[in-house]
Design goal:
Blueprint lengths: L6 E5 L3 H14 L4 E6 L15 H8 L4 H7 L3 E3 L1 E5 L7 E5 L12 H10 L11 H7 L14 E3 L2 H14 L3 E4 L2 E6 L5 E6 L4 E3 L2 E4 L16 E3 L8 E7 L9 E6 L2 E7 L4 E7 L6 H11 L9 E4 L3 E3 L3 E2 L2 E3 L5 E2 L7 H14 L8 H27 L7 H8 L4 H13 L12 H10 L16 H20 L4 H9 L6
Parallel strand pairs: 1-2, 1-11, 2-7, 4-14, 11-20
Antiparallel strand pairs: 3-6, 4-5, 8-9, 9-10, 12-18, 13-16, 13-17, 14-15, 15-16, 18-21, 19-20
The protein binds flavin-adenine dinucleotide.
């Protein structure tokens, strides 16, 4: 590799490939030439439509106009995820993106809420979160001054097309073709990609966005994969798009079933649905039939079965190759973290840019940060499966009784005993997220911080009442989500 990797070749034009191209071209365009090779014959995975709030920061960094992006992708707003039947059959809670209750330096709001409950006061933990209440009532609005925490539901195919147009305006070169062979230098670094039509694309640095197979990172460099399926047993999904039957609510639905769960992602023009399942416990036919029985609207597409393996590439950056997206690993779609990880991966790469050859120290730093980030997300996802009262099927029995990673076991023990959750350095999920999910899955902490007992019954009750009233008053000001979307970013479509 030359001292300065001027020619960056991105193999694969799914969401990962085009996000990487967009970021490099927008932020480092004067330093690099970016080429994306993609194959229409192979196509993209076609799912990945729910996002989380950091995507907004990323779009701002790239100077992507929110309304234009939302119109182009028929996007709606997302305030969180509604989990149904997870803690137990019949249970429901929302993991929202907002902050719950008034914070104090000494103890999180959850301690005051637990103290109130112990004194017999009514009220759900989520009653004190603005975003959560807005989600419940299907309300939404945003403006430059508003502090509402939200993400998007977007059409995956349209998002790729939007990013392609964005990249094309920034000079990214697109090459259509199937990569047939990956040529290496004598030292093992990647030298060039040989396409089926005879074209040879050389590069200084390669980004593998070829999806699960990892054509460069795995099939060529044999980097190795750490398998997490002992904790995350779902390995398949059946996806179908359906007609909308109601105004889009501002949240994703994730409804558990006897061997996994089903997503419902409302867009402006249709709904994305998918049944995620463990093939050991559910056949493909049963999954397809269950999905079609559960969806609300008429199917617009033929149900598509997808296979995946949960785990991580042992080195996301190996030699002169960085893997992003599904090529770098996959946790689970449950908390919509995959697109986020692409964004974080390319941002980290730009920050640790290999300007003087691929220094092993840079690679080690990149890989260690990536590993820590992924393991924390992995733990958060496992939490949803493991902390449950469900024992109604072999799948849930196994989830409930399995050994979980020590890092997660310690968090659960601490929350059970003392109601403490924490966000580690550079961790994606906040204290609020851990708390909402731990309570939502049915953990009832034994103790809480004694600071909460310093308030009299009256003081505590008044404080909670005021907080609840503030939330309700703020939500009352908001329009219906679907009405706001129509006015703010309504997509002009024939459908
Ligand atoms: C069931 C499921 C649900 C998901 N839901 C979410 C979600 O809600 N939110 C979220 O953030 N993420 C989600 N994800 C993950 C998300 O779909 C991916 O992270 C995202 O789509 C990026 O995919 P990709 O670009 O890595 O791979 P792909 O979309 O598979 O793209 C691979 C690209 O490589 C090209 N390619 C492959 N081989 C060759 C070759 N030999 N020659 C030339 N080109 C080649 C393909 O043509 C394609 O362009 C989900 C994933 C699954 C499996």
């Amino acid at each position: 590799m030359t001292a300065h990797p001027k020619n960056i070749v991105i193999a694969g034009g799914g969401t990962a490939g085009w996000i990487a191209a967009a970021a490099l071209a927008r932020k480092m365009g004067q330093l690099v030439n970016v080429r994306v090779i993609e194959s229409e014959v192979i196509g993209t995975i076609g799912v990945g439509e729910a996002t989380i709030p950091p995507l907004r920061t990323f779009h701002k960094l790239l100077q992507i106009d929110e309304q234009a992006f939302m119109r182009a992708t028929a996007a709606t707003f997302k305030l969180g995820i509604q989990f149904e039947n997870w803690g137990d059959i019949g249970d429901s809670y929302i993991h929202s993106f907002g902050v719950t209750g008034q914070q104090s330096w000494l103890a999180e709001f959850v301690h005051f809420h637990l103290s109130a409950k112990a004194r017999g006061f009514q009220g759900d933990y989520g009653d004190y979160c603005f975003e959560l209440e807005a989600a419940r009532q299907h309300k939404f609005a945003t403006s430059p001054k508003s502090n509402i925490q939200y993400a998007y539901h977007l059409d995956a195919g349209d998002y790729v097309e939007f990013l392609k147009r964005f990249c094309s305006a920034l000079g990214v070169v697109r090459t259509e073709g199937v990569i047939e062979h990956v040529a290496q230098h004598d030292n093992g670094d990647i030298k060039a990609l040989h396409l089926q039509d005879g074209d040879i694309v050389e590069g200084d640095f390669f980004i593998d966005c070829t999806g699960f197979k990892g054509l460069l990172i795995e099939e060529t460099l044999n980097t190795g994969f750490e398998d997490w399926s002992q904790w995350l047993m779902c390995d398949s999904a059946c996806a179908v798009q359906t007609q909308s039957t109601q105004p889009a609510p501002p949240y994703t639905r994730a409804a558990a079933h006897h061997a996994g769960w089903q997503w419902e992602i409302p867009l402006q023009h249709r709904v994305g649905n998918g049944l995620v399942y463990a093939s050991r416990f559910m056949s493909d036919d049963e999954a397809r039939d269950t999905l079609l029985k559960n969806v609300k609207g008429e199917p617009l597409t033929t149900p598509k079965t997808l296979r995946f393996k949960t785990g991580r590439r042992k080195q996301a950056w190996n030699r002169n190759c960085l893997a992003l997206g599904l090529a770098s690993g996959f946790v689970e779609p449950l908390e919509s973290t995959s697109i986020h990880l692409v964004m974080m991966g390319i941002t980290r790469f730009m920050q640790l840019f290999p300007h003087s050859g691929h220094d092993p120290a840079l690679i080690a730093e990149y890989n260690s940060q990536t590993q820590a980030e992924l393991e924390r997300i992995r733990d958060f996802i496992i939490l949803h499966y493991h902390v449950t009262q469900r024992e109604d099927s072999p799948f849930w029995q196994q989830c409930k009784t399995m050994d979980v990673p020590d890092s997660l076991a310690e968090r659960i023990t601490l929350f059970k005993a003392q109601a403490h959750a924490f966000q580690k350095q550079n961790e994606l999920f906040r204290v609020d997220s851990w708390t909402q999910v731990m309570l939502g899955q049915g953990i009832a902490p034994t103790h809480f911080h004694p600071a909460a007992t310093m308030l009299t019954d009256e003081q505590l009750q008044n404080s909670l009442k005021q907080q609840r009233e503030r939330v309700l008053a703020a939500v009352k000001q908001l329009p219906e989500h679907a009405d706001f979307v129509k006015g703010y970013c309504g997509a002009m479509r024939g459908e």
